[in-house]
Amino acid sequence: MKIVVIGGSGLIGSKLVVKLREGGYEAIAASPNSGVNTLTGEGLAEALKGAAVVVDVSNSPSFEDAAVLKFFETSTRNLLAFEANAGVGHHVALSVVGTERLSESGYFRAKIAQENLIRNSKIPYSIVHATQFFEFLKSLADISFDSGKVRLPPVLFQPMAADDVASALAAIAVSPPLSGTVEIAGPQEFRIDELVRERLAALNDPREVIAVPEALYSGAKVSLRTLMPEKTARLGKTRFEAWLSQSAAQIPSRKVG
Predict the structure, then answer these.
(1) CA dihedral 250, 252, 253, 254 (to 10 degrees)
(2) Residue-level pLDDT at 255
(3) Can you give the pLDDT at residue 45?
(4) pTM for the structure as a whole
(5) What is the pLDDT of residue 247?
(6) Which of 86, 188, 216, 255 shows a CA-CA span of 20 to 30 A to 104?
(7) In this structure, what are the phi and psi dihedrals at residue 190, rounded to the nearest 5 degrees?
(8) Separation CA 83–CA 248 (nearest Å)
(9) In what order do the strands lie in the sheet with 208-211?
């Protein structure tokens, strides 16, 4: 079975390609780096030739409201059109837990538009809503840094390891289309400000993290459980402490001088 991974050179895509190949599938990593551009359509026809499944884990290079909307609408329309011509039987898209509750955010309005295009197409599909990744906790601190402090809303979330995201996507990609949405999440519940504080401490990052109830998440107001999955979510196996230990082991030692 040929499976094309759009965004196959990124964090999730590269892991997904490896897992699919280990499972004996023909996995193709498609991205601008390999000559496949979903915005222009360049290379799509050739990449999708003979493909049974397409997994879209791509993301917009810009998070500015108009740019991100253009990216997801244009790339998704192109993908679906080329998939129809190629006879692709399953479109899998990675999205975010809570997307429908975060429409104040330009980014999430773009994800809603992407999901609507997929649902309204004739191609059988599976939309995968994932929680935040452990790997992006520092980035979350970076975008929430203001006036010398990291300001985060003290709300709940259930983040997961990127490796578990890729494993879940691999399983869904080789299964029959869901014609609906499935949630995936980590095995533990945390408060965002507390976990980001713990991550920065592990990185010896001195920035102070403070809980600000009115702080926005990606430009949207959030309540205590806005970012939490339903109880039916499929849970990854990796606990934060284990991931943190693995992450620390992968950081090369730095020599002074």
Answers:
(1) -150
(2) 32
(3) 97
(4) 0.94
(5) 84
(6) 188
(7) -135, 165
(8) 41
(9) 145-146, 149-152, 208-211
- Helix pair 192-202, 240-250: axis angle to 10 deg: 30
Mean pLDDT of the chain: 95
CB 134 within 8 A of CB 162: yes
Beta carbons of 49 and 20 less than 8 angstroms apart: no
The tens digit of pLDDT for each residue in 124-170 reads 999 999 999 999 999 999 999 999 999 999 999 999 999 999 999 99
Residues 131, 137, 140: CA angle, nearest 5 degrees: 95
User: Maximum distance among all alpha carbons in the chain?
Assistant: 61
10 neighbors 57 (Cβ within 8 angstroms): yes
Which residue do the tokens 């920065």 mark?
200
Give the mean pLDDT of 96-121: 97
Q: Of the candidates 171, 185, 169, 172, which has an alpha carbon nearest to the alpha carbon of residue 234?
A: 185
Backbone angles phi, psi at 24, to 5 degrees: 90, 10
- In this prediction, residue 254 carries a pLDDT of 33
**Tokens coding 107:** 């980014």
Grouping H, G, I as helix, E, B as strand and the rest as coil, residue 63 is coil
Q: Residue 254 is encoded by which pair of tokens? A: 């730095």
Residue type, 174: V
One-letter amino acid for residue 134 of the chain: F
For 68, the enclosing helix (H) or strand (E) is: helix 65-86
How wide is the angle at C-alpha 58 spanned by C-alphas 123 and 91, nearest 5°? Answer: 15
Beta bridge partners of 235: 185
Task: Report strand pairing: 90-96 vs 125-130.
Answer: parallel
pLDDT (tens digit per residue) in 205-239: 999 999 999 999 999 999 999 999 999 999 999 99
